């Protein structure tokens, strides 16, 4: 005769094991993406994606204003977030040109931004001209908040370095990368040139003069830096006539030298490209934009697809879906 206490204990152990296995399977279930573009109630572009301490994925894009006048009228930033990569919350506008005291009086020209979290604060970085001659007067604006999705205050002055305000001709698309040791870096540039420098711990100033980034092939704009398995990756848009593609380089250091590796995103319905790469719930994703919704270059929409690495750390060409 079997011992009833022994049998009850064995049943309990079996149920616990089954529960653990079920939990593990659910945790490892691949994320299913919804249709692209992921935001359809307004036009968004140049997505900067980050996963913050609350576990949600936040998206900081630029905003294509309707009706457009090229890219001149872009002057408002919204923030979006998700916890499942399908349903997105629009948290509303966080920064606009009227909030920038040092900006050009006619506003506009609020192009590709980025965000960072350090010292218990959220930092939002955006390019903006300070003069009517916008092409030569780009600077890096900074807004700071205690929250990732609201209450951002634009600082009275743009970012400074040892040589004065950071900026100049075609200096757009700031990217801020914080390494595992807490050191922040700024990558900044456009018009076929890119510069970088270490930032001070206050996240508001450069710790050193900027230096030109070497080793990239056909760099145009839209730099983004991320880290995977101890290697640093710098992705960017090229100058391909008619429809930019996205390429990348790798390095053993955030300061370079960089070694070009190839293309990760082919051309799509939009003439220009700009993206960000982020890990979320154990999977990697590339955010970018297309003109699939509007069929016009001046009205772009953010899209996302999964990104995969080869065993040697190189990145496979991302397969775009609709």
Write a compact overview of the structure shown.
The chain is mainly β and 322 residues long.
Fold and architecture overview:
The chain is mainly beta and 322 residues long. It has one helix spanning 4-27; strands at residues 44-51, 57-63, 76-82, 89-96, 114-118, 121-129, 138-145, 153-154, 160-161, 164-165, 167-168, 175-178, 184-190, 193-198, 211-212, 221-228, 231-237, 246-251, 259-265, 276-280, 283-290, 301-307. Strands 5, 6, 7, 8 and 11 form a five-stranded antiparallel beta sheet that branches. Strands 1-2-3-4 form a four-stranded antiparallel beta sheet, with no helix packed on it. The chain has a four-stranded antiparallel beta sheet with strand order 12-13-14-15, with no helix packed on it. The N and C termini lie far apart (63 Å). Mean pLDDT is 92; it is low at 1-26.
* Proportion of residues in helical segments: under 10%
User: What portion of the residues fall into strands of 2 or more residues?
Assistant: 35-45%
Uncertain residue segments: 1-26
Order of helices and strands: HEEEEEEEEEEEEEEEEEEEEEE
Number of strands: 22
Backbone CA Rg = 22 Å
Outline: globular
What is the number of helices? Answer: 1
